[in-house]
Design brief:
The protein is of the alpha+beta class. Helices cover 34% and strands 36% of the residues.
C-alpha cells in the first residue's frame, strides 16, 4: 500500500482520530470531577475501564475481520466512532429508562411497521425530570437490485413541555436507500429528507436532511470466537 493512496490517508486519519477520542475519556474525568465536586482520582477507574473495553473489543473485531475482511471492518469502525461522537452531543444529561417495542409487516416487496419507545428520567444533574415518547413509523417499498424507497421518520412527544404547541414534533419524509457490498459485507446507504408540519414553536426543527450507513449482518459471529 502506498503512503499517498486514499486508503492509506484514510487509515492514518482514522487512527489519529481514534487516539484523540480515547484521550477524551481522560479529559472527561477531570471535568466531571469539577462538576460533582469529587476527587478526580475517584473517577479514574471509569476512564481506565473505558480504555480496557476498547482494547477488549479487538478480540471480537479480529474474528469479524477474518470473516468480513479488514477493509469492511475499518469502514464500520471509523463510521461508528464518528457517528457516536456526534450523537453524544445530543444527550440531555439525564439517565433515562423505559419500555419499547416493534410491530411490523414484511412482504415480498414491502416493509411497514412502527417502533414506539417511552423514556422516563431516573437520575442525573438538575431538578428537571423528563418524560418523552419516541415513535418511529416506517414504510419501505423494495423494487429490487438493493434499492429501497419509503420513509422512516421519528415522532417525538415531550409530555412535560408547554401544552400550547410545544409537545409534539411530527415529521413526514422521503427516503431512498441502496445496499452495496463493501468487501464481503453488505452495507445500506440511505438519504432521507424530512419536513415537520407540527413542531415546537421556538426551538423545534422545521426540516432536516439525514444520511445513514447501516451494515447488514446476517450472523454476527460464526463458529468459536477464540478459534476453530
Amino acid at each position: 500500500m502506498k503512503l499517498s493512496s486514499p486508503t492509506s490517508l484514510l487509515l492514518n486519519l482514522g487512527h489519529a482520530m481514534d487516539h484523540w477520542v480515547l484521550a477524551i475519556f481522560l479529559y472527561t474525568v477531570s471535568v466531571i470531577a469539577g462538576v460533582w465536586g469529587a476527587d478526580w482520582k475517584e473517577l479514574t477507574p471509569y476512564a481506565f475501564g473505558a480504555s480496557f473495553m476498547f482494547g477488549a473489543g479487538s478480540i471480537v473485531s479480529g474474528k469479524l475481520g477474518d470473516q468480513w475482511g479488514r477493509r469492511a471492518m475499518m469502514v464500520l469502525f471509523f463510521a461508528g466512532m464518528g457517528v457516536s461522537s456526534l450523537v453524544i452531543a445530543l444527550c440531555q444529561n439525564k439517565w433515562q429508562i423505559g419500555p419499547g417495542g416493534v410491530f411490523g409487516y414484511l412482504g415480498g416487496k414491502w416493509l411497514a411497521g412502527v417502533f414506539p419507545q417511552q423514556w422516563f428520567s431516573v437520575g442525573g444533574p438538575g431538578p428537571q425530570t423528563t418524560s418523552q415518547m419516541n415513535v418511529q413509523y416506517f414504510f419501505v417499498y423494495l423494487p429490487g437490485h438493493g434499492w429501497g424507497i419509503g420513509t422512516s421518520p421519528n415522532m417525538l412527544v415531550n409530555w412535560y413541555a408547554n401544552k400550547n404547541g410545544n409537545m409534539v414534533t411530527f415529521p413526514v419524509g422521503l427516503q431512498i436507500s441502496k445496499v452495496i457490498k463493501v468487501g464481503p459485507l453488505p452495507v445500506k446507504f440511505a438519504v432521507q429528507g424530512q419536513y415537520m408540519p407540527v413542531h415546537p414553536d421556538v426551538f423545534g426543527q422545521k426540516w432536516n436532511l439525514q444520511f445513514a450507513m447501516t451494515p447488514v449482518i446476517p450472523k454476527l459471529i460464526k463458529g468459536n470466537l477464540f478459534g476453530d
